[in-house]
Design brief:
Blueprint: H1 6-19, E1 23-24, H2 29-35, H3 40-44, H4 54-68, E2 72-73, E3 79-82, H5 84-89, H6 96-108, H7 124-148, H8 152-165, E4 176-178, E5 189-192, E6 200-206, E7 213-214, H9 216-228, E8 233-238, E9 241-242, H10 244-251, E10 258-262, H11 264-273, H12 291-295
Parallel strand pairs: 6-8, 7-9, 8-10
Antiparallel strand pairs: 1-3, 2-3, 4-5, 5-6
Length: 306
């Protein structure tokens, strides 16, 4: 089963609270995982950013929205209890998401900023990640557009610089070089892996329009060029894509010669991630409570009386 969205978790979480006096956030995970028949892998699956477990985060947002809507209360930090409003709303569970959306919109109505649609099946954190992913994809395309406006020779230089940025060549001074056009023997660039140049990675770079795919024959020619220079390590980089036959051939080399294929999508990602010709436009810092710090502070025994 797929990991449920936060709006799908709300009713089961409320029902769980009717069985318990109160629950801490982390005490929801195991019983709700059983409700949704989640595997251990699904329970511990993290966001691609590495910023926490998906299921646990969605439980947190489900409880947060129900707290904002007045269905649950927090007698103390990190602890949830269902209240009379929540018990009443559970009589018509099919209406709970609409109830929450209405309540939260009313609370947000005085703000000038656009209100959050709390009936979406994504958490605000997930929506942020999706927006970030969309921005990244747009920039990847922009990177390839710029590269296609440059000369093939400049593309070869960019490829060599990128591989060095990625750590190939290590601490070797001037580890990367672009070969001469007049005698390149099918090799566009070389990365020295050690000071003496005993280990080398040879590069083929093709600046092709997006619609023009690299075929099996091109990869075979590159493998032949590697044999001529007695190398068994090659990287083939293009701004376009590879045909299934090209990919299958590269994968079938079985280690005698290793050829890594990098297409336009991966190229854009690598240039972005390794900041080649990129600059930071904006940094958004999102913080969360340090549970270890706050849990070590003394609780007020009379908090319920406030």
């Amino acid at each position: 089963m797929t990991i449920p969205k936060h709006d799908e978790i709300r009713v089961p979480a409320l029902e769980l609270l009717t069985e318990k006096d109160s629950l801490k956030l982390n005490e929801f995970e195991a019983p709700l995982a059983k409700v949704f028949n989640l595997s251990e892998e699904e329970v511990v699956e993290e966001y691609e950013s590495g910023n926490g477990k998906i299921f646990y985060d969605r439980i947190s947002w489900a409880l947060s929205y129900m707290n904002m809507a007045g269905l649950v209360q927090k007698p103390k930090r990190g602890v949830y209890q269902i209240n009379e409003v929540g018990i009443e709303q559970l009589k018509t569970p099919e209406n709970i998401n609409a109830f929450i959306a209405t309540k939260v919109r009313k609370k947000e109505s005085t703000k000038k900023t656009k209100t959050e649609d709390t009936n979406t099946n994504q958490t605000p954190q997930e929506e942020l990640y999706d927006s970030f992913s969309t921005i990244q994809s747009s920039i990847y395309n922009e990177i390839i557009d710029v590269i296609l406006s440059k000369s093939p020779r400049e593309f070869e230089k960019i490829v060599v610089m990128l591989l060095q940025k990625m750590g190939y060549g290590g601490q070797v001074k001037a580890a990367g070089e672009v070969t001469q056009y007049s005698n390149d023997k099918g090799i566009d660039g070389i990365i020295k892996e050690d000071v003496l140049g005993l280990g080398r990675i040879h590069i083929q770079a093709k600046r092709y329009a997006r619609g023009k795919s690299i075929g099996r024959e091109d990869i075979q020619k590159f493998v032949g060029a590697l044999a001529v220079v007695q190398s068994n390590k090659g990287i083939f980089i293009t701004t376009s894509s590879y045909t299934p036959g090209a990919i299958e051939y590269a994968e079938s080399l079985n280690g005698a010669t290793t050829v890594v294929l990098i297409d336009g999508v991966e190229l854009g990602k690598h240039i972005y991630e390794y900041s080649l010709g990129m600059q930071v436009e904006q940094t958004i810092e999102i913080k969360k409570l340090d549970s270890d710090f706050w849990d070590s502070r003394e609780d007020d025994p009379n908090q319920n009386a406030l």
